[in-house]
Design brief:
The chain is of the alpha/beta class. The chain folds into two domains: about 120 residues, Rossmann fold (3-Layer(aba) Sandwich); about 100 residues, Alpha-Beta Plaits (2-Layer Sandwich), CATH 3.30.70.1450. It is built from nine helices and twelve strands. A six-stranded parallel beta sheet has the order 3-2-1-4-5-6, with helices on both faces. The protein has a six-stranded antiparallel beta sheet with strand order 7-8-9-12-10-11. α1 packs across α6 and α4 packs parallel to α5. It starts with a strand and ends with a helix.
Length: about 230
């Protein structure tokens, strides 16, 4: 089961929570300092917690670094957003997505080291949910309530193996849709090609991206096995 924390239960936070809670393999924990927002959302999430996200001790108490992803949806209160982002980095949260309200806000979050930033124009709950990275390895796209297409970067023990060796359909009931590869053009520019009929006998290399489709539970099972 994947666990996401959403910090900030405003309009964007609620839209994101509603989207994520449709996925049976995801648990959502809502965090806000406003008791009224927590009371309003508590029956629609796995757990709702009232706490001040600018307090390190409060974040440590809920073991914020153990979540698969933390989504910081605070936009208007720029100082709270920045202080929270600093603490999330300090506490080694592995996957942070943050919304910014203006270019100054974006620049500061970027300087802190937040690499996955969502602009005001993009800040729709559905958009973030569909683009949500999990553990730096998965990118989700909904097909149905229970099925997704995901991108799975090839790294570590996967490099050097071919599709025949992996045998994902037999082991996990997962289908390989395509493989994305980065190549260099004749002028030295980087290009991405998508091979929709990959040769099952050709070894994959570090940096390739598997595009796979399957039931969310099967994808989660594969993800956990590959992460071992």
């Amino acid at each position: 089961m994947l666990q996401y924390a959403v910090i900030g239960v405003g309009t964007l936070g609620k839209a994101l929570i509603n989207r994520l809670m449709t996925k049976p393999s995801i648990e959502v924990f809502a965090i806000d300092n406003d008791i009224n927002e927590i009371e309003a959302i508590k029956n629609n999430v796995t757990q709702a917690m009232r706490l001040d996200s600018t307090q390190k001790e409060a974040l440590e108490a809920i073991e914020i670094n153990k979540f698969d992803a933390v989504i910081l949806t605070i936009g208007e209160d720029m100082m709270t957003s920045i202080l929270t982002a600093l603490l999330l980095k300090e506490l080694n949260v592995k996957n942070i997505i943050a919304r910014y309200s203006n270019e100054k806000h974006r620049a500061i979050l970027s300087m802190i080291g937040i690499t996955h930033l969502v602009s005001p124009e993009e800040s729709m709950g559905v958009h973030i949910a569909e683009q949500l990275e999990v553990g730096d390895t998965l990118l989700l796209y909904d097909l149905t309530e229970y099925h997704s297409i995901v991108e799975f970067p090839v790294h570590g023990g996967l490099a050097g193996k071919n599709l025949k060796e992996l045998d994902l359909r037999k082991k996990y009931k997962i289908n390989v849709v395509a493989i994305k590869k980065e190549t260099v053009g004749i002028l030295g520019e980087k290009k991405v090609i998508v091979d929709c009929t990959p040769d099952p006998d050709v070894p994959m290399v570090e940096g390739d991206i598997l595009i796979i489709a399957g039931h969310d539970k099967d994808i989660e099972k594969m993800y956990k096995k590959m992460a071992e």
